[in-house]
Amino acid sequence: MFYDKTVLDNGITVITEPMDTVRSVTLGIWCAVGSRDETPAEAGMSHFMEHMMFKGTPTRTAAGISESFDRLGAELNAFTSKEYTAYYARLLDQHTGQAVDMLSDMVVNSLFAEEACTSEREVVIEEIARYEDQPDDQVHELFASTLMPSHPLGLPVIGSRETVGGFGHDAAKAFHGAHYKTGNIVVAAAGALDHSEIVGMVREKLAVPAGERSVRVHAVPATEPRLAVVTKDTEQAHICWGVAGLAARDQDRFKLAILDGVLGGGMSSRLFQEIREKRGLAYAVYSYHAQYQDTGQFVVYAGTRPDNAIEVIGLIRTEVDRICGDGITADELDRVRESIKGQMVLGLESTRSRMTRLGKAEVTDGELLSLDEIVERIDAVTVEDVNAIAQRIFDGNHALAMIGPLGEDAVRHLV
Questions:
Q1: Residues carrying an active site annotation
Q2: Do 398 and 315 share a structural domain?
Q3: Domain total for the chain?
Q4: How far is CA 101 from the centre of its chain?
Q5: Per-residue pLDDT in tens (0 to 9) along the chain, 415 residues
Q6: Which CA distances in Å does 39 have to 50, 151, 171, 364?
Q7: Rounded to an integer, what is the distance from CA 233 to the centroid of its chain?
Q8: 288 and 163 both lie in a single domain
């Protein structure tokens, strides 16, 4: 086993991976709560929690938290997704105990002072405004809400001005009490560490209230052809076309990774070559797949001048139809397979990426495979496997989302 795992008596899970060739450690406290777990009135609260954990505890001010980590030469950060929230520090191994102490204090004892909530509401609303000024980012959330309009995974992580504007001490305290409990907490660490020492530090410092893992309702969303267009005065039309994908533990996910690479996963992919290199219709064009506990999404993005939008959407559809009709080639399979393995190995050279892999898998009940096991799964994929998964996911029930100076009528015929 390449990792060590201990479940404490109170339900907190500690999972670590030693790396003998480094002098640093990345340690994260993960909570199994994300935007999909919020009520309509709480939309954006998981992300708001991420902000508020840095705003002070009974023994540390907000400035004091920042100064303490700076003195250690540490990287301190956090992130929120649709299924989890994580707080982490990356620092020299000699300071691991101090990182556990300070991160634990932040996660357990944050004050959620009304004054801090008031100021941080404005920060998040500014973040929403910034996000809305970046249509190449915003279109991905528009796509998710179009593909899964009645599923909690379709809700934006950041929330809205209306919901965030109502967040205060009482709401934050109640949300924290409901979700930040032992059964929802995973501590993941990678680097120059000793597992038993990390377990001892967590047992001593991380005094999260006791509670079982929260129950998350799993549901595969019903799909049908859908369209959403936000008409906006932008220089480009930002396009997302896609379909429902695979859940995180679906055994076909390695086949889907190959399909993604062939279609739009790199500079040699079909979409990049056809839309950018041959025709010069886009600077950015790519595909990706996102996987959640119960479902997923496969998405193609392109940004192009409005006059070219219809042609680009048509080319995306043509390439998808060509893969479904003719399949991929053995050369494409070999090239993408080696690319995926190389990128994976390079990505796992940092303590942060390894900690993230551990934490994400554990907090979402995912399958945690060794590097050799992943390579074995990828190497086992055949041309026939990829062609079969293309037939499985490209079933015609696709969604199209676009932000740009065009109306729905201009692209309705493409759905």
A1: 50
A2: yes
A3: 2
A4: 27
A5: 899 999 999 999 999 999 999 999 999 999 999 999 999 999 999 999 999 999 999 999 999 999 999 999 999 999 999 999 999 999 999 999 999 999 999 999 999 999 999 999 999 999 999 999 999 999 999 999 999 999 999 999 999 999 999 999 999 999 999 999 999 999 999 999 999 999 999 999 999 999 999 999 888 888 889 999 999 999 999 999 999 999 999 999 999 999 999 999 999 999 999 999 999 999 999 999 999 999 999 999 999 999 999 999 999 999 999 999 999 999 999 999 999 999 999 989 999 999 999 999 999 999 999 999 999 999 999 999 999 999 999 987 899 999 999 999 989 888 8
A6: 17, 12, 12, 20
A7: 29
A8: no
Q: Any idea what the CATH number is for the domain that residue 16 is in?
A: 3.30.830.10
Measured distance CA(324)–CA(73) in Å, rounded: 52
CB–CB of 35/47 below 8 Å?
A: yes
Angle between helices 309-326 and 253-264 (to 10 degrees): 130
Same domain, 116 and 195: yes
- Sign, CA dihedral 142-144-147-149, equals negative
The residue range of the domain holding 77 is: 4-205
